[in-house]
Amino acid sequence: MPKTKKDMEEYFSFQKGWYQLRQCEVADVRNKIQAKLGTTTRMAFLNRLNGVTQGTPAERDAIEKVFAEYGITEIWGTV
After folding, report:
1. Which H/E stretch holds residue 58?
2. What is the dihedral of CA 78, 20, 60, 71, to 10 degrees?
3. pLDDT, tens digit, 9 for 90 and up, residues 5-47
4. CA-CA distance, 15 to 49, in Å (whole number)?
5. Can you give the pTM of this predicted structure?
6. What is the DSSP letter of 73?
7. What is the C-alpha end-to-end distance of the chain, expressed in Å?
């Protein structure tokens, strides 16, 4: 488990997967992730994307499943 704040943000960030999306998929993926996590604001989503807000293991699994629909398997970490 990461120890520093920077390590935590990188561990919980899904920027690596996010930047592999095609532009036409971005809005759809964001909406799916927000629905699965129950976030309603863009800022809450960005905090998740950047790893500022830590997710539970179930939330991590949900995010992985959304990216898997688009053929993206390496999603965790920053770019």
Report:
1. helix 57-68
2. -150
3. 778 788 899 999 999 999 999 999 999 999 999 999 999 999 9
4. 6
5. 0.89
6. -
7. 20
* 33: exposed, middle or buried (Cβ count in 10 Å: 0-12, 13-18, 19+): buried
Question: Within a 10 A sphere around the Cβ of 16, how many other Cβ atoms?
Answer: 16
| Residue 55, C-beta contacts closer than 8 angstroms, at least 6 positions apart | 12, 37, 48, 63
Cα 57–Cα 74–Cα 61 angle in degrees, nearest 5: 20
In the chain, what are the domain boundaries?
Answer: 5-68
Distance CA 16, CA 78 (A): 5
